[in-house]
Amino acid sequence: MNEAIDFASKGLDKTPQLEEKWISSFKGRGVFSTVILQLGDFVVEYRGDLITAKEAENRRNCPNACVDFLFDFRWRGGKWCIDATQDDGTFGRLVNDDHYNPNCKMKLIVLKDKPHLFLFALREINQGEEITYDYGGSDCPWRKEGVGEIFGYGVFRVLGVWECGGGGRVEEVMGGVGLGGG
Ligand SMILES: C[S@@+](CC[C@H](N)C(=O)[O-])C[C@H]1O[C@@H](n2cnc3c(N)ncnc32)[C@H](O)[C@@H]1O
Question: Which InterPro entries does this UniProt record tie to the protein (predicted)?
Fold first, then answer.
């Protein structure tokens, strides 16, 4: 956890241990590990604007809204959101969803009275492996049968807004308890 706090306070990503790569026109970009990461290691922070659920709803309802980067979570009995829509060059916003075999888990840590979202390794992560976590919810369109890449024939997507319902799957961590998966 100390490593996460250190990177958060400096506003830095864990480079060169992570790198961004283009995957495909279906999935877009992703984040990959350039080293072996151990179970429980801090991987990356999901950075963006901290906004209320009401503000998130307003942003979702804007014409041409991009909802790809809105991460909803609960904190202190309320609903909040981190909006990472703005491409600030950080890696957290580029981590893709995997609900079958994710290698990271999102955890909420409060620093200076402000919630931060961090990904920690759920297991050993190989060099060159894509960093993933379970976005939560149940209606991510790319998880549905018939949505995906057609090998050799380009790519297809469902039309409309892509949004995982139910909010992000995140667990609040206090005093370092519970790091290392689980
Ligand atoms: C937070 S962004 C992740 C970074 C994104 N791949 C990019 O290039 O900007 C979330 C978006 O990535 C895409 N995505 C995430 N996980 C995916 C997956 N398993 N399969 C296909 N697309 C995925 C979807 O378009 C989703 O709305």
Answer: KMT5A, SET_dom, SET_dom_sf
